[in-house]
# Entry
Amino acid sequence: MPDVVVYRTEFCPYCDQAERLLDDMGVDFEEIDVTDDPDLRDELVEKTGRKTVPQVFINGAAVGGYESLRELKSSGKLQELLDEDD
# Structure
């Protein structure tokens, strides 16, 4: 099973959509809420160079936000990433 992590904030419609997409695919994921945690936000920026959420990681690799996740799903590459072993 792949390690999937979603960094999100409260009241973020794109975060909700990303998590719904993963749920619809039956993917278990860890949710990390960075709403009130500036240290976690800084960590996220260090990892991705981006301040926006959601940011999705699969097996430790940043794959981007909701739009990127949706494009990966459409192309079939998301399933490939999810099928890879650690």
In short: The mean pLDDT is 94. The CA atoms of residues 47 and 62 lie 8 Å apart. Residues 4-83 form a domain with the Glutaredoxin fold (CATH 3.40.30.10).
